[in-house]
Specification:
single chain, alpha+beta, Sortase, Chain: A
């Protein structure tokens, strides 16, 4: 039978190995978050540089005072952010902001995995960011759209495209099954529909969808 001293020594060795592994994982996580933030900022800066001055009659909305909180993102999403830096980049077609929850994300023209690792994407690329109907935007629940779990009815949502800045106000929150396409139904006026998987903290492929519906306001 091993002596108590040898057992203590073995436990200490295991503890040192686990501590070292934990520190290494934290460094990888922190590095991924930093790369993801660089990607987000670069996309928004590129969009701003390619966008003409705000159209007459529209007011400029200041950016949120703080960056979106990424402490709740999954480690896999942070890693995918880092990997997206190595891929060819495309310009976003809009920037989505929900000031109360400090969400500011570039919106790309489609739902490719590369784009969803860097921001959000249009569900229907043909609709364009200036659609006067039901404009649907999706993003990962363990990334930028994690912030949607804190939104409330009445919150202001701003979508800034190359030609206009449109304000919406959230009027409904719902949870639907993946096969339920009713949130994508056409509308007679400008409506913004934000879609992400649900539950937010589900491990694996989340079974439902969280829907935020916002109506354009003057």
């Amino acid at each position: 039978m091993p002596s108590p001293i040898r057992l203590v020594s073995s436990w200490l060795s295991i503890e040192n190995v686990l501590s070292t592994l934990g520190v290494a994982l934290l460094l990888v996580f922190a590095g991924g978050r930093a790369l993801g933030e660089v990607e987000r900022r670069e996309a928004i800066v590129a969009f701003t540089a390619s966008t003409p001055a705000t159209a007459p009659g529209t007011a400029s909305l200041p950016s949120p005072s703080s960056d979106p909180d990424r402490s709740e993102w999954s480690s896999a999403r942070v890693r995918d952010h880092a990997e997206s830096l190595l891929a060819e980049r495309s310009l976003p077609v809009a920037v989505l902001r929900i000031p109360r929850v400090a969400l500011e994300a570039p919106v790309f023209p489609d739902l490719s995995e590369r784009n969803l690792n860097r921001g959000a994407g249009l569900v229907d690329a043909a609709a364009g960011a200036d659609s006067n109907g039901n404009l649907a935007i999706a993003a990962h629940r363990d990334g930028y759209f994690r912030a949607l779990r804190r939104v409330e009815v009445g919150d202001v949502v701003v979508l800034e495209s190359a030609s206009q800045q449109r304000r919406y106000r959230i009027d409904a929150l719902s949870i639907v099954e993946p096969h339920d396409l009713s949130p994508l139904q056409s509308s007679t006026g400008p409506v913004l529909t934000l879609i992400t998987c649900y539950p937010f903290w589900f491990v694996g492929n989340a079974p439902q969808r969280f829907i935020v519906r916002a109506v354009a306001v003057q």
